[in-house]
């Protein structure tokens, strides 16, 4: 199956091709509606110091995640994949001073960058970074019998998406939201014969969601500075 792509401008590493018009629209709305202070800007730009530069969410997507937290009144957020801590800061500010964000990150290099960014943003007191394989960290939380999370953001290695969803279901209760990022894969997700591990991971988690009667879900495709992608929004009934 061939992938459909728009005419492209530039394609930074760890991003999909993006058309100039897509980027211009994202830039317009972000400048008009998204309030990024210097701490957020520094965190976003420091993504270049991580093991996956350019992989952080875009400013308008960070603001969207923060709004989801506010709309559902979430006070406890779990994040699979920290990188530079950009989305972590959005979450931490949204849960408020009495809220809690737990974020899971494999790479020590990324943990060091994220800690500095989170401290600069003034939210270190409400963020716990757990270093190591995300599945193991999630199992640790389960074994701790931790208080259920209100919102979980899955944005780590895509082949492990089914494992992360299984953990998320053990760490949430009815009414919780689960957001799974980067699921369109530049259109590759529609190829049922794909051997790409990330595509297969997305398709497997879609199958798991569809087979679970306690979950309702939808998907939104997105285009913009990160190219053609999208996310799954899941609600526990």
Notes on the structure:
- With 237 residues, this protein is an alpha/beta fold.
- The protein has one domain: Vaccinia Virus protein VP39 (Rossmann fold, 3-Layer(aba) Sandwich).
- The chain has eight helices and seven strands, in the order H-H-H-E-H-E-H-E-H-E-H-E-H-E-E.
- It has helices at residues 20-33, 38-45, 59-71, 86-95, 108-120, 134-143, 161-170, 197-210; strands at 76-80, 100-105, 127-131, 149-154, 172-181, 215-224, 227-236.
- Strands 3-2-1-4-5-7-6 form a seven-stranded mixed sheet, sandwiched between helices.
- Strand 2 (100-105), helix 5 and strand 3 form a beta-alpha-beta unit.
- Helix 3 (59-71) packs parallel to helix 4 (86-95).
- The longest helix has 14 residues, at 20-33.
Give a short summary of the structure:
This protein is 39% helix and 22% strand. It is an alpha/beta fold.
Highlighted features:
8 helices; alpha/beta; 7-stranded mixed beta sheet; 237 residues; 39% helix; globular; Rossmann fold
CATH class: Alpha Beta
| Total tally of structural domains | 1
Percent of residues in helices: 25-40%
Order of helices and strands: HHHEHEHEHEHEHEE
**Spatial strand order of the main sheet:** 3-2-1-4-5-7-6
Using only CA atoms, what is the Rg? 17 Å
**Main sheet overview:** 7 strands, mixed
Counted beta strands: 7
CATH architecture identity:
3-Layer(aba) Sandwich
Based on helices, strands and strand pairing, what is the structural class? alpha/beta
